[in-house]
Amino acid sequence: MRNPSGPATLTTAERAIDARFRAVLARLPRHGPAGWLTEFAVFGLKQAWACVFGGAMLAVIFAAHLWYPRDATVARNDVLTLAAVAIQIAMVAGRLETLRELRVVVLFHLVGTVMELFKTQVGSWTYPPDGLLMIGGVPLFSGFMYAAVGSYLVRVNRLFDLRFTRYPRRWLTALLAAAIYANFFTNHYVLDVRWLLIAAVALVFGRCVMQFRIFRFRWRMPLLLAFLLVAFFIWLAENIATWSNAWLYPSQLGGWHPVSPAKLASWFLLMIISVVLVTWISPPQPPDDGPPPGMRPDAATRRRRTPVR
Fold this sequence. Notes:
This protein has 309 residues and is mainly alpha-helical.
């Protein structure tokens, strides 16, 4: 996918798909409303492609809620776990993920499962108590929901050829991620400092700008805004999953209702942990398309030669 100092590259399967789409899209107008519409359409297609793991998981959960027989021999939780394993195997076998990326996805699974074991024990949420493929009352498919976030991040990195201006040093982001992860546990016993951590995230990442290529053009977005947007869509997915009774919060046990928007803060903080894990195999890369406005060419050259930490 990426060597330590080079840009992300598409997998074999993605290169074939990309070539076919480009052959069609290249015939479309470059400027005017049609050009903008082309960029918007490609953006949607790339985002959908990046979400294929999470989208498949969510579709299976939704379908199981609607159509899985209540008196089936195999518990629904076990079917969801087996389906998640099948999706992951298909992702690697179909060359939609590399073995190197799989390491990050597995790490997401482990980090998420540890958190699930703790959070269910303290009553933050619960799962239906059926099935054999469980640890401490937590069905194993739950870890794949965290893995889906990891899969999205590694895929979106290469599909949009992400580059970063003023990305903070990675050791600093790792310390921040460790503090965030610890707070998910300690907030049940001592003061919850999530808002202080959010302020720290704003301070550390506030100057960073993400550059991404959709089709013909590069676009820019504050990295904090990107974090917030991804957290919002994870929150929407969580509403679908809880409506499907994959898990429930205590306030939903008497009847389903939308997940509180306050959970957006938790998902926003989870994004920092996720990004730090992804940078383990995909170090953030600086822009390579010329100097930013106001920067002298010689300064930009020195900057590109300096590795991003």
